[in-house]
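hey can u check if this looks right to u? its 388 residues, i copy pasted from the old doc so theres a chance i mangled smth
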Amino acid sequence: MLIYVIAGEPSGDLLGGRLMAALRQETGDTVRFAGIGGENMQAQGLRSLFPMTELTVMGLTEVLPRIPRILRRVRETLDDIGRLKPDAVVTIDSWGFTGRVQKGCQKLYPDLPRIHYVAPMVWAWKPKRAAKLAKVLDLLMTLLPFEPPYFEKEGLRTVHVGHPVVESGAGQGDGAAFRGRHNLGADVKLLAVLPGSRHSETSKLLPVFGQVLHRLDNMGVKAKVVVPTLPHLVDEVRDAAKSWPFDPLVIEDSAQKYDCFAASTCALAASGTVALELAMAGLPTVIAYRLSALTAFMARKLFGFKIKWATLVNMVLDRPVMPEFLQEDCRADQIAPVLARMLDDESERDWRRLDMAAGMAQLGQGGESPGRRAAQVVLNFIAQRKQP
């Protein structure tokens, strides 16, 4: 069996690698691959048609000059599919490129099963995109449990396979080892502070987080602060933390991050994937985020971007298990009292842990891995299509 797999950026390559590993396992390693991907997919036997990095572009000013080259790569990809005649094409996210390939397959190879992995966020903006996908695809696999109805009502077969964060190991940290490594007693309340993974995030959140910590100090809170960060941000984070109370411990070793989560009492974190990792670790967390005023205006007014919650666990449960303070509400005077109560009240932390576990179960934690579920869905669909 030959499956053509296409990813256009690193997170898609990670999904693709896990999917391919599961496909090999499910078929007893009797499947072959072709397509486009990065190091994770190449580790599973893919020889990428061209470097995936050519597709990893973001922002209007970056994309526009590359449009002719990208369109040429679409044509080359379609020619390669026609030459190889795979049993199915599986595209992963990056709909700007993968959507063009799927549309080309629909026109040129109408009998070829067309599968896409990761649904566009039609629930947040442009709901009419669901109908457009339904006209092109045969099958859609989603990460989130509430996504299928948006596409099923348009007639597109859609299956929720689970979120890849449940394969991250975020809930398997060694808290005792972390405390021992940094001479932190078992009775010390530990507050994990995570101000983002990009300079655009840390530049806005570090000042706010510092103000939160000063308010906590003035309120008489007793705790130790630890700040897991990344090498490209460590200097910026250390400079900011110099003026913070609680003698912050800045950690740039990514191998310690999940141990830190397991050791901590509570967290203050930027919105993003880290919120899911914290939920997996069962760490009660306050979420804060702030976009630039212009970006926020464009998202709300020009593109009609509208969501009730920013954190997926809150979305799944439709309640603020992880309290959110976004944009105008991202202020120390609002965040500090909530965080102080969370640090002080063990019963509050307990019920939040239970709710986070319930939310993560809906995202696939505790069941079969999303990669394996996706592989089973792909193989079953191919088998059904081959039936007379």
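Residues 95 and 341 are 43 Å apart (CA to CA).
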